[in-house]
Amino acid sequence: GDRxxxxxxxxxxxxxxxxxxxxxxxxxxxxxxxSAETATSVASHWSLQTVxxxxxxxxxxxxxxAFVGAPEHSFRNLFQKWCSALNVQHAYAGLGFVxxxxxxxxxxxxxxxxxxxxxxxxxxxxxxITVAARCRHGxxxxxxxxxxxxxxxxxxxxxxxxxxxxGREVQAMxxxxxxxxxxxxxxxxxxxxxxxxxxxxxxxxxAVAALRSDxxxxxxxxxxxxxxxxxxxxxxxxxxxxxxxxxxLYYTKTWLARFD
Length: 260
Description:
Helices cover about 30% and strands about 15% of the residues. The protein has nine helices and seven strands, in the order αβββαβαααβααββαα. It has helices at about 15-20, 75-85, 105-110, 115, 130-135, 150-155, 160-165, 200-205, 245-255; strands at about 35, 45-50, 55-60, 90-95, 145-150, 170-175, 180-185. The strands form two sheets. It has a four-stranded antiparallel sheet with strand order 4-5-7-6, with helices on both faces. It has a three-stranded antiparallel sheet with strand order 1-2-3, covered by helices on one side. The protein is globular, with a radius of gyration of 19 Å.
């Protein structure tokens, strides 16, 4: 329940002892939010957010400049190292939107990301609490690097099945619990206004579409005038939602399915 901001630095580390003592007790979920900005309402290129519960999740932002001049494949190797250390069930990495950390600040930012997310389709965007809760048995949506554990992969065959369906442009790296799929030599932004669509992302997305979890929540404020098509609903219900809510749900689901 301590929501006070605590400055941290190499000479002034934060004592996380109380949290370590509770690391196996998730009866009361807790979270750590870290940002290089002094105000949590400001998006930071250096930030970290956790969701510590039975469905734990971790979201980290780094600036691209952090890897300028680094050895080849430094980023994907770091992703592989973290996936193995955390023994993840599913994880994603690439270029993405930089968001404020935590609570209402993050939610408000995501509300307004729809026009940009649907245009620059290669940019990743994550909603940690929602994804942690909704993707307990599946995955969210693919990006440049997509880690999927063996248990989930077994539902579509195995890693070799995915690679065969996705094509030669998709490569694979092993990690402790499964396989990391690499969609092309570098991450892509894409731009639907210029018909620049990251096709290799779609090749991978279609190969694992059966694993994508249903997320019956509206992330984005829909554009004015957008309506859901007749008969649209969600697998978890929502047929009786208000038209505005249904439009937002449709808008979000369309974005999540962009690589199917």
